[in-house]
């Protein structure tokens, strides 16, 4: 039986070498303001924008581009989604039972939505 509820991508987490540059870029170029800062404002470990981007500071990162850390998925029924995921043979990660690793390595953080939040988010047509 497939999961009968709905979900949406709430955020995408990206590891970056220079978090301050990325904060400025998303703010000044795209108008995405911060909704949360983890750590001191002058030396944040992570930040979340209004609009679904999470930036995680990793100064030693040497890759040519940002590195995907995980995708945060907001769901109507966390327990139902976890039960369905079990049938797919996913691996649970140490962060908690709502953190899953898919066979190809993609990591998901499943988050329980409050009330009708998923339906409200999905009702928005950003291209309308």
UniProtKB/TrEMBL annotation:
Stretches of the chain forming a coiled coil according to its record: none
- Output the superkingdom of the source species: Bacteria
Residues annotated as domain VOC: 8-128
Which InterPro entries does this entry report, sorted A to Z? Glyas_Bleomycin-R_OHBP_Dase, Glyas_Fos-R_dOase_dom, VOC_core
SUPFAM superfamilies from the UniProt entry? Glyoxalase/Bleomycin resistance protein/Dihydroxybiphenyl dioxygenase
Q: What is this protein called?
A: Glyoxalase
User: Source organism lineage?
Assistant: Bacteria, Pseudomonadati, Pseudomonadota, Alphaproteobacteria, Rhodospirillales
